[in-house]
Design brief:
OB fold (Dihydrolipoamide Acetyltransferase, E2P); Rossmann fold; 6-stranded mixed beta sheet; Mo/tungstate-bd_C_term_dom; ATP hydrolysis activity; alpha+beta; 8 helices; binds adenosine-5'-triphosphate; 5-stranded antiparallel beta sheet; 344 residues
Length: 344
């Protein structure tokens, strides 16, 4: 199913403009993540699509060629998965998954067949007869996913489905979810404030800020070509290099850099993985902190720009706190963004 939102906005009764007029299209089978900080309007947008929230007048929501703007939630055929699972604790896994199908009054044989099918897809067969209370958080979330998918919804909506899980489980379930959603071949929208999660799961990420979609693109596009400082900072933690640009030369507190193009009126950003500690580098600064992260060290360095900058250092030996180090940054790794976009 193709989803299309035109001029869709939401003003809550107290006057809060949670969503400014938004255009969004999601292709058939596409997995789109709504990514943004707390309060930017992700959940509001998801709830409008589900039919749980009424949008402002002038908004239009299309499921293929059907205008569903005025359609009640139960008539939209959407599947939903929430952070809180929302499962029936006293029912078995099988009964939870079959619940929606029973409500649809499908014949028992068909319910059994469909439940067996999703149990298999979600690798839940061994737990089919267990009560929900006897499952781990990760297993419960898989049941929630299986239950949402069993009625074959037109659209699957997921609101921070992994937030309640601990870090390691979250990561493994994240990869599992990315595979499962593609196996289901369903159009899906996934809300998260975690950029790694959005990048791992989605085909396309719509980054939101203050009730607006500020940029939408593939994870690679957003990472490599952010169009605002907000996106550069939120996706991949780009750091601003505050200095004085003179044509293609950037003068910083700790040295000079060559820019890929004229830096007038632009703010220059760089990512920690592009700051290389090497003796011949043109920048110099003082090591303030060193953190060992298994595959690499994260080295925080002062004296290069007004704030500290970080370097991802993958060598076997890391510099020590208090050392002075030289650094280099390839001109291609520098991102120049209009300074006025800081307000995004
Ligand atoms: N019922 C409501 N009445 C008034 N304002 C609301 C209501 N629900 C949400 N808001 C406000 O609308 C804005 C967007 O909220 P929303 O829940 O959509 O954000 P979010 O991006 O999903 O945040 P989070 O990640 O914290 O869930 C926030 O400023 C929030 O306080």
């Amino acid at each position: 199913m193709t989803l299309r939102l035109t001029h869709t906005a939401k003003t809550y009764p107290d006057g809060t403009k949670a969503l400014l007029p938004t255009e969004l299209s999601v292709c058939k089978g596409e997995i789109v993540s709504l990514l943004g900080p707390s309060g930017c309007g992700k959940t509001t947008l998801l709830r409008i699509i589900a039919g749980l929230e009424t949008p402002d007048a002038g908004s239009d929501i299309w499921f293929d060629d059907d205008n569903v703007t005025a359609l009640a939630v139960e008539d939209r055929q959407v599947g939903m998965v929430f952070q809180s699972y929302a499962l029936f604790p006293n029912m078995s896994v099988r009964a939870n998954i079959g619940y929606g199908l029973k409500m649809q009054k499908l014949p028992k044989a068909e319910i059994d067949a469909r439940v067996t099918e999703v149990l298999e897809m979600c690798q839940l067969q061994p737990f089919a007869s267990r009560a929900i209370t006897a499952l781990s958080g990760g297993q419960r979330q898989r049941v929630a996913l299986a239950r949402a998918i069993a009625p074959r919804p037109r659209l699957l909506l997921l609101d921070e489905p992994l937030s309640a899980l601990d870090a390691s489980l979250r990561e493994s379930l994240r990869d599992e979810l990315a595979v499962l959603l593609r196996e289901f071949d369903i159009t899906a929208i996934f809300v998260t404030h975690d950029q790694d999660e959005a990048m791992a799961i989605a085909d396309r990420v719509a980054v939101m800020s203050h009730g607006r979609v500020v940029q939408s693109g593939s994870p690679e596009e957003l990472y490599r070509n952010p169009t605002s400082s907000f996106v550069a900072g939120f996706v991949g933690n780009a750091m601003a290099l505050s200095g004085k640009a003179d044509g293609t030369t950037l003068h910083l507190e700790g040295g000079t850099l060559t820019l890929p193009s004229d830096g007038a009126g632009q703010t220059v950003y760089v990512r920690a993985e592009d700051v290389r500690i090497e003796e011949s580098g043109p920048l110099r600064g003082k090591v303030e902190a060193v953190t060992f992260l298994g595959t690499h060290y994260r080295v925080v360095i002062s004296g290069v720009t007004s704030g500290a900058i970080a370097s991802i250092h993958s060598g076997q030996i890391a510099p020590k706190v208090g050392d002075f180090v030289n650094m280099s940054i390839n001109p291609e790794a520098l991102m120049l963004l209009p300074t006025e976009a800081d307000v995004a």
